[in-house]
Amino acid sequence: MKKIEQRINYRFKNKHLLQEALTHSSFTGNDIDNERLEFLGDAVLELVISEYLYSHYPFKEGVMTRLRANIVCSESLTMAAKNLGLGEYLIMGKGELVTGGRRRKSNLSNAFEAVVGAVFLDSDYENTRSVVLHALKKNISLSLDGKLVKDYKTELQEYIQQYEKNMLEYSLVKSEGPEHDKTFYIQLQHNKKIVSEGSGKSKKEAEQNAAKVYLAQCTERDTQSAKGKKHVSKRIRDKGL
Q1: Is 38 labeled as catalytic in the residue annotation?
Q2: Which H or E element spans position 194?
Q3: 169 catalytic, yes or no?
Q4: Which of 20, 33, 96, 113 is catalytic?
Q5: Dist CA 109 CA 218 (whole Å)
Q6: What is the largest CA-CA distance in the chain?
Q7: Check: CATH 3.40.605.10 for 153-238?
Q8: What is the pLDDT of residues 130-172, one digit of tens each?
Q9: So what CATH class is 2-149?
Q10: pLDDT in tens, 62-85
Q11: Of 42, 122, 181, 207, catalytic
Q12: How far apart are CA 118 and CA 127, in angstroms?
């Protein structure tokens, strides 16, 4: 445990919290797993990044929302977990282990959130803030430069806000697979009309994929519309009207 504590830059007073944060739900050797800590860590992460952006940059609310979503998305947290080497410390069942569980993106991002939750319970906000900013320093910099990851949900939301009375709703349709390796299926509705679906190893990933599909449809429709208008304008000019 000392090595992982060195990597996350925090020494736990209650080592059991760290063990819980690293225990995957597939492990049957005890009655704990990291899902509750993951839930807490997710909320703490959003608070830390929100406060950091608010305190350090004069951005408008919409810009901060987009940056925060980018920094705390599953792909970003997976990158951070890999940099910390969390995968090699995960405690999991044999089935999950032999199928690549230590490298699975959802396991890594979930474990990162759980570790954040564990630090918060073991200490206080300031210590947790320090751990988060230490682990996500590179990701924050990349996000500010627009070089981290694509946030399709936020981009789609901004796209439809150009028009009045637009509402997006993401709904979980079903999930398949064992408890420790589920695939989630999300349905996206635009103004109560089903427009796309997406799947992923987490609900967040599935939502991003559904948004990606619909955003591509919207931009393609805009492209075709622009081509049509250009063609009409050319015909008018050719006729001298």
Answers
A1: no
A2: strand 193-200
A3: no
A4: 113
A5: 30
A6: 82
A7: no
A8: 999 999 999 999 999 887 877 888 889 888 887 766 789 999 9
A9: mainly alpha
A10: 899 989 988 998 889 999 999 999
A11: 42
A12: 11
